[in-house]
Predict the 3D structure of the following.
Amino acid sequence: MLHTPAQVSPENCPALVLNADYRPLSYYPLSLWSWQTAVKAVFLDRVNIVSKYDRVIHSPSHEFRLPSVISLKKYIRPARYPAFTRFNLFLRDSFQCQYCTSPDDLTFDHVTPRAYGGRTTWENVTTACAPCNLRKGGRTPSEAHMNPQIRPYRPSNFQLLDNGRAFPPNYLHESWRDYLYWDSELEP
């Protein structure tokens, strides 16, 4: 059954959020707002509408096309370094175990174990698949004879962006493509 634009659920119409310089607020995760948040920001005059969906919503006195791309009116300075999160760690390490390169069953490993004073920092944590993490256990890389392929480091936002180009989101609306850095030929 074909859906006309009016039949598409508003929940399937998130808005890509751009900073005032027309760059996405974040790529990982992609900066998306629900249609309700986007509409509220429009009416509070906090954003500009850059592009719209064909989907229309109605109030008793207004008809409104949902925004597909919005830009903030005030520039938000991005942090120089990304937050230390599991997702960002996996992205830094290209979603593969740093001991065997497997992309499956990923966890994170303290290179210097916490029992030896190792801390949970960018410089001491690496991506490991569950079998490698279990095999290494609470030992140092030299004790376990397992060295990570890349020494853990704190990435910049640019480095994560560069790594992330290999992992585009599952869905890209055509109106977003001019503002993102993935291959424009990707199928939505």
